Amino acid sequence: MTIDLDALYIDLHRHPELSFQETRTAGVITRELDALGLEFEEGVGRTGVVTVIRNGSGPVVWLRADTDGLPVEEQTGLAYASTARGVDPAGTDVPVMHACGHDMHVTALLGALEKLQATREEWSGTVVAVFQPAEEYGAGAQAMIADGVLDRYPRPDIVLGQHLTPLPAGTIGVRPGTQMAASDGLTVRLLGRGGHGSRPHSTIDPVVMAAATVMRLQTVVSREIDPREMAVVTVGSIHAGLKNNIIPAEAKLELSLRYPDDDARADVLARVERIVRAEAAASGAEEEPVITTDHTLPPTINDPAATAKLTAAFDRAFGDGTVVDPGMFTGSEDVSWFAREAGVPLVYWFWGGVDPQQYADAVAAGTVARDIPTNHSPFFAPILHPTIERGVDALTVAAREFLA
Amino acid sequence: MTIDLDALYIDLHRHPELSFQETRTAGVITRELDALGLEFEEGVGRTGVVTVIRNGSGPVVWLRADTDGLPVEEQTGLAYASTARGVDPAGTDVPVMHACGHDMHVTALLGALEKLQATREEWSGTVVAVFQPAEEYGAGAQAMIADGVLDRYPRPDIVLGQHLTPLPAGTIGVRPGTQMAASDGLTVRLLGRGGHGSRPHSTIDPVVMAAATVMRLQTVVSREIDPREMAVVTVGSIHAGLKNNIIPAEAKLELSLRYPDDDARADVLARVERIVRAEAAASGAEEEPVITTDHTLPPTINDPAATAKLTAAFDRAFGDGTVVDPGMFTGSEDVSWFAREAGVPLVYWFWGGVDPQQYADAVAAGTVARDIPTNHSPFFAPILHPTIERGVDALTVAAREFLA
Amino acid sequence: MTIDLDALYIDLHRHPELSFQETRTAGVITRELDALGLEFEEGVGRTGVVTVIRNGSGPVVWLRADTDGLPVEEQTGLAYASTARGVDPAGTDVPVMHACGHDMHVTALLGALEKLQATREEWSGTVVAVFQPAEEYGAGAQAMIADGVLDRYPRPDIVLGQHLTPLPAGTIGVRPGTQMAASDGLTVRLLGRGGHGSRPHSTIDPVVMAAATVMRLQTVVSREIDPREMAVVTVGSIHAGLKNNIIPAEAKLELSLRYPDDDARADVLARVERIVRAEAAASGAEEEPVITTDHTLPPTINDPAATAKLTAAFDRAFGDGTVVDPGMFTGSEDVSWFAREAGVPLVYWFWGGVDPQQYADAVAAGTVARDIPTNHSPFFAPILHPTIERGVDALTVAAREFLA
Amino acid sequence: MTIDLDALYIDLHRHPELSFQETRTAGVITRELDALGLEFEEGVGRTGVVTVIRNGSGPVVWLRADTDGLPVEEQTGLAYASTARGVDPAGTDVPVMHACGHDMHVTALLGALEKLQATREEWSGTVVAVFQPAEEYGAGAQAMIADGVLDRYPRPDIVLGQHLTPLPAGTIGVRPGTQMAASDGLTVRLLGRGGHGSRPHSTIDPVVMAAATVMRLQTVVSREIDPREMAVVTVGSIHAGLKNNIIPAEAKLELSLRYPDDDARADVLARVERIVRAEAAASGAEEEPVITTDHTLPPTINDPAATAKLTAAFDRAFGDGTVVDPGMFTGSEDVSWFAREAGVPLVYWFWGGVDPQQYADAVAAGTVARDIPTNHSPFFAPILHPTIERGVDALTVAAREFLA
Known about the structure:
The structure is a homotetramer of 404-residue chains. The first copy, chain A, has 404 residues and is an alpha+beta fold.
């Protein structure tokens, strides 16, 4: 290989950057693209990079990798552990770590581009590689789309992507249908009337209004959704009041909602809004609650036909048993925006980065949950081999399967 | 006296009757009225009795005693304890006891009528004695009014009444303003949609709707009423469902509400209705809840001027210190209907029936709550003397105070 | 065939019997077994029937059909609709209907026995046919086991059974793993202290205790169970109090819990008990709540290997596409007790009874939920053909697959 | 008078100071004490001032005035309105106003000292004047006691004080028994376990724990306290969480509790703690909640005998009808600490500062609540006359009543 993927990965790992600040990372990517003789564009969606390999007629396959790190202080003890720091949107100085494996995503995509470039005579069509920023904010894909990425480059016939996960290295996890949940973040302002803590009857107490709302919201999942379906209604934050003896005028709730698909989204959102408005009415609120949507992440839905085709290709390439069904994840991703906006299929799979022996021992001891660090953990530390090779090959095999 | 009041009281105590079944009691009353040479009418408001003493020009004073017993099994161990039984409105055979002292009320009123009759030359005006049934159902006064009691007899210039209470015998308790609370009994039907217990999402669960409503109703008293005001919102019964694995179609709540006056009634009723309707809406109910009023008892409000006048009269008649302020009772009475319908003042007082030494000992020992049986207790057992005398005299003094 | 299956089904349908009262049904079954020359035993588990076909060495296959009807008033309008009535355990006279298809279960098993008897030369081993009563009470299987059914007859190597369902006639639905949920029915007595509705402070209000408990129980499903797992916590009934102005001394809740497996059962039961006890403590209850288990239904878990084997056999016998994955049902069954107690595999499948054209039309119109009556509906009316044939053949094919 | 009370009041009103920052105010006070020839001590309890008039043998009477202003922006439009600013304990620059009338309290006490000094020959005994800081924080009285005020000066035989209130100027409001409520401020930390918003089952959700606790706390007042008694349980602030998709590890509640006396305090505190602990248990919390008391204000209980004596003295001095029963206030005061610590009687009364004609008009129009600004309002603006005179005279009459 032209690119030294081990060195590349270690360099990226040492130098993680927060969302929409991935400028050094973009520089590393473009340096390697340059070395591969590929043209590219920087600054797509603020800090994204796009490159295109045009190779005759045939389908257009998009390969996507996300590039940002997280405000986590690395505790892996690795020789190449991050000591980087950054400034978050609130202006706070924070440690930064590639705790979600996006450094491996970038490494694998660059490796795959080299392989595809080296085998141009074996396939025809167009490969678009999308290095997307700010996945951790759920904002990067939409930023690239707003910046015209779907119009300025060949539109995809399929969008492919992959995510590192705590499965044994070598293993690939993918399922048809919903692979990751949809999610909305809502802010709810409940408007009461403030007053002295000793005179509740002169107020409309927003603390009680908020408490009753939180309790009632539990019934969406417990009573209103088919018990066999996945749905989550989390109130992640609740804030009202300054001191004990003043009843405040309002309360603020922040909700995170999760669902398997768009129908469930519409359904759950309607139920949440119904409850919020009714609980304000139960308090005799004089003003309607204010509900705003802070972000919307679509479900990550794998096209069944394309997933079946790809699974078969992985089995052929890597041997039977390589591909497992990892189940649906209740976490969310923004990769889907590319496929949804373009109206084309998506396949998004997971690949393992854990030492297989360590994994097998943990399974035998029943200590997987304790001993195998997951994404976002300060101990998240994929082994380099065969993780890098499998990531490169999975992307290459997948791209080739959908090119001519 | 013509009437043997001790024997009369013991006879009544031995033979209590349930509400609207006071026929033997009416027979006893009319036998004594006959003996006093007074004309009377039976069957007023089903089982009530009314007699009138006309004695020249002057004010019309109504004296009211209620006549019914309670479905309580007497455990006083008295020689003249009740062993009576009756059939309640549900058709159940139940024990019956004068556990609220209405036997003493009747005895005192008959004694007072004899005294007033014997002293006709000392006063002028009209005395109407009302032996009212079914106070325990909160229905007897309204039944008599519906039967025309206010039109068929001289309309009152004032309504007077008294109730036995566990104060020391000899003591009278009365206060101006609200003496006993107003009360409403409501039935609330919460309408959901039934279904199988394993499929809550196909239902609108009325059990959860009812539970949320009960919890929210707590906030009327805890947050919406001035902490210095008396208000009670009790859900005395809740019923829904037949078995564990069927979600029923509706739930029924029965509420008892208490307030000091009519303004508070309107206010609390509006708050309760607001919450019930909003909680149904929070459940997504397809039908509005059905709220019905089962009974309404007005506040027992003592006219301040008349109460002051009467308190002074009691002090003169019985000595300073006889009259105490017993505080407001959260229990309710239907005597007020007579005064409210007629638009005239009411004074309703309490008089004690407990052995004074026993009471003093209990106070000293701090065991009043434990040792002194209250109204409706199976151990409620007033001493005969001076309870009877004080009851007779209090009514006589009071009537004379407001007659010419 | 010796047996006229159409006439048999219609006769059973006309004469449904309530659980543990299936004596006429047992008579019909034994008459047909007699006609087939099979020996049998009646009264196993009160009203069950067992017969055995011994046919040389080989595996022992149990075939189970349940026999009871439901207290539902038939509204199908069929010529052979039930007009039967019965007396339920509470002593109430109720209508009775085969609204769950157990008449078809019995018909198919008798037909299968005739086929197996007629083809004895083609297989060897032992068939035990179990006509189980009282499935609707979740009590019949355990009654038969308590009566020694596993000891008095050849112990199974596998247990097989089938249930009629609103799929198109001809279709078979089965899945490996959990096919139907486990379930427990609990009664919870919450002990407070009663008193007058106007004096809540002298009581420990069990209505509020119950309401708070119901609201808190919602959080088991909404917060404590993996959103991807099935769990149901239904409070199907809540009862406390006699009238609005008396605060009762206790409240009774009846809960129906559902889970996919035994681990989830233990987990959910522990969480429910934790909440019930803590909410009683929050009320300051002086006595612990009393929690009793009314019934326990295990999960209906299909052995994966046996299910795969059987699915292949159905495909061969009936053509590809006959077998569909119907998903897990949140309803429950007691058939598993036989396999669990014996420690052997179970396969339990569903077969369709709906006119295929009607079903296709409803699917096209999006009106399946409205137009296709489900089990327990008063309109549940399977078509006779090919429902009977497919039921007979499915049992026969299945039995033969596991016999030698 | 030596002191120009109008000018003094206006000067104080123009220059309010926040709690424990009353240094300019202390300077004004000591300047006037100096002018009266009285010795004094500054810095008692940080910013308090104490002076003593020793005048032969006889009772020791303490007269107390509080001195601090509030962080309120004055909107009275008065020529002498405050434009002062201060820095609050959080370091924030805030407007400051004498919105509670403490400027009038100081003025009246200085005027009374002059009068008492001028009439030394008419009385004997000792007057101790206490200018207390930081009443608004509920901390000044305890700070002075901690600084030895009860030991370094003649111990009181009685403690007297007065508060300006929106009654008509000239009127005095006082009642025997509880005049102002007791109060505690509590902080409750509810400890759960944090995690990702999409994985509630891996957490112990403190937001739900807090909401359930708030709802349950409502039942203390609604169910557990005699409806005729005053009690308030306010949750004035609730805080948990940073963003919608992270379930936080803990929640914080701040409670303000109010009661009429110490028995009720102990009772309500025990109930609140019981509920907080049980709701944490209902959530399966692994750590006990942490409950801390931020401040404790005793009930302001007027000694009945002393209050009767004082009421009679006021009637004699100012004419019948001057003294009204203002009812109990649910607000709280720290003046009681002096009397409680010393074990002597307290009388604390209110005096009016509203233009009587304006007040009468508002009563007639039913607009008192809207038109008469209350304490802590930015529009609170007592008229100078006869407010100052009545304040001076009330203190003087009261002191004389309890001196020899």
